[in-house]
Amino acid sequence: MAQGLAMLLALSLLIAGCSRQSEPAAQPPTAEAKPRAAEGEAHEEGAALALEALVPRGVKTGRVEKRALSETLRVPAEIRFNEQRRAVVSARTAGWIERLAVFANQPVRKNALLAEIHSPEFSSAQQEYLLIAERARNDATGEASRLLADAAQRLRLLGLTDEEIRELEASREPLKDQHVHSPIGGIVIEHKVAIGDTVQPGQPLFVVADLSSVWAQLSLNESQIAQVRAGTPVALTTSAYPDRRFKGTVLSLGAEVKEETRTVWARALVQNPGGLLKPGMFADAEIATGGAKAVLAVPEAAVIQLEGRATVFKVEGGNLHPEPVKVGAARGGQVEVLEGLAPGDEIAVEGLFLLKSLVLKSQMGEGHGH
To answer: Looking at the keywords, is Transcription present (predicted)?
Structure first.
């Protein structure tokens, strides 16, 4: 019996051993079996980034070349209304507000209706015009015609247009309320009255501004005054729109130096497409002050700080590699490159935030791997 048990145990061990030998040995993963890196992620060798995978994600490249960069000053600025394109709309007669047609922050066209005022003086002026017009039809001396012209001028001063005066004479139906119109197209910055408010002649009702252009108040040090004059080109950048440059020209320089700050204000007229610049905003102004010279330059947006060094992403072999560079002065949205690049090099000029984040993500992954 014991001998049989021993033989059975030996047979079991023999079968188990054969079974293990028949299992295929684990093979190292082939290149095909390795998981593919996510598109655009940094590779281990030099944090290379596949350009082809990144183009659909907003990365664009450009060639490094020499550019003519002007000497510039950088000074702080504040956005103001263009006072030549800002209107305070006031009441022309005494009365009370019957209707408001617009409110603050609404766009309006030139001559758009803003409000209606019920005014006894306005009603009286219309009735007087109609009486004189009737008299003028039967007056051969011309005196009534002169009086009619005076009455029409009074209606114009009260806000009626020539077309409205002709309609009044044709219909002989006075307007119930005085219409208040916008003298310019733009945005309603303020409405200062409510329905039912009584108003007096000259009382402000609305402020309307055309923001297609704005003024920029530039703060110049005494040492900078001689470099700036009327007509000097200027470009603004803001924290709200860091990738946008708003171009304009200097209109005038202040007549005095502020004693407290030893600065002089210069005023610039700046184009404001889309009304992006808002009065009260702060900005950085770049003023072109000297002749241009040709230097190796790249867009300012193409240079980032990586590990405390100025860096660009250079294209080599279809991949983007971080390339440290030494940069000089920045002018006109371009920055001079002193070391690290040569004319004709291809670098990333858009999508730098994505590239930087991929490199940092790759470095974090390598840190966890150790």
So the answer is: no
